[in-house]
Specification:
Length: about 60
């Protein structure tokens, strides 16, 4: 199979996306089952950061 730069780029993007999804699911399940205040604060903080980023980009 021939390797290309485009294939390597797609593989890296998918790798980062999969890692991000795994972290999200880990902390989301931890939030559901344990309800630790630190995890709740982290979710709220990340949610606020995403909303602010979208607001800045779409403004």
């Amino acid at each position: 199979m021939k390797e290309t730069r485009f294939g390597a780029l797609i593989a890296n993007i998918l790798s980062v996306g999969t890692r991000g999804l795994g972290w999200f699911l880990w902390y989301f399940l931890r939030l559901i089952y344990r309800g630790e205040p630190r995890v709740i604060a982290g979710f709220v903080g990340v949610g606020v950061a995403i909303v602010l980023l979208l607001w800045l980009v779409l403004r």
